[in-house]
């Protein structure tokens, strides 16, 4: 396979005021594009050319750092654009998500606090996650382009806490960005779709 940059699933200005068009233009058109371009170059002669993106991420982890960083970030960003939507967030979660979060994570408020803490305490660049591992929801954090796939879990929701994701809109206030993401941007329908596919 080769990596391709998808169009955003919404207009560049759709997520304002929580994420600006300027942030999305840089983040999607420059940063994600660079992962696609560099990933395709590093995929050549890697021995993983015929694999799926998930296989490339898992099989390059710990073995081919350059390819892993770019393939991991391509995977993460493909989902990240879909993990957000206009008028997202909120506390009425679709399907079984509310009861699953109650039973596995101690309720929505505890999930929100733990997810924001994961993002705020990730030192340097990385991601905060809600993932499914052995049938149970878990809040996780990872550095750089790593994701739950390489820790035996399925990513259901991720928030990009690299500075390029929030510095234009929030400057250094990463917790404010995380709160806006949870309260106003999360596309819970997409989270449910991934949960149902994984369970
Ligand atoms: Mn990013």
UniProtKB/TrEMBL annotation:
Q: Name one Pfam family in it.
A: Sod_Fe_C
PROSITE patterns named in the record: SOD_MN
Q: What is its EC number?
A: 1.15.1.1
Residue span, Manganese/iron superoxide dismutase C-terminal domain: 96-191
Q: Which reaction does it catalyse?
A: 2 superoxide + 2 H(+) = H2O2 + O2
Q: Ranges for the Manganese/iron superoxide dismutase N-terminal domain?
A: 2-84
Enumerate the UniProt keywords alphabetically: Metal-binding, Oxidoreductase
Function as written in the Swiss-Prot or TrEMBL entry: Destroys radicals which are normally produced within the cells and which are toxic to biological systems.
Q: Which PANTHER family does the protein's record reference?
A: SUPEROXIDE DISMUTASE, SUPEROXIDE DISMUTASE [FE] 2, CHLOROPLASTIC
Q: Which family does it belong to?
A: Belongs to the iron/manganese superoxide dismutase family.
UniProt-recorded name of the protein = Superoxide dismutase
Q: Which organism is it from?
A: Roseibium polysiphoniae
């Amino acid at each position: 396979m080769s990596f391709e940059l998808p169009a955003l699933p919404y207009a560049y200005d759709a997520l304002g005021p929580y994420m600006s068009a300027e942030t999305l233009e840089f983040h999607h058109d420059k940063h994600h594009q660079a992962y696609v371009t560099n990933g395709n170059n590093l995929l050549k002669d890697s021995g993983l050319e015929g694999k799926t993106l998930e296989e490339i991420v898992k099989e390059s982890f710990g073995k081919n750092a350059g390819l892993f960083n770019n393939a991991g970030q391509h995977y993460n960003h493909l989902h990240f654009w879909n993990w957000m939507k206009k008028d997202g967030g909120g506390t009425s979660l679709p399907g079984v998500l509310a009861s699953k979060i109650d039973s596995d994570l101690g309720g929505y408020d505890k999930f929100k606090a733990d997810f924001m803490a994961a993002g705020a305490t990730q030192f340097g660049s990385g991601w905060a996650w809600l993932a499914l591992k052995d049938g149970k929801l878990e809040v996780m954090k990872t550095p750089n382009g790593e994701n739950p796939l390489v820790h035996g879990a399925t990513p259901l929701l991720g928030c990009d806490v690299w500075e390029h994701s929030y510095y234009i809109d929030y400057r250094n206030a990463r917790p404010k960005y995380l709160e806006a993401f949870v309260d106003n941007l999360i596309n819970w329908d997409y989270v449910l779709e991934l949960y149902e596919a994984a369970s």
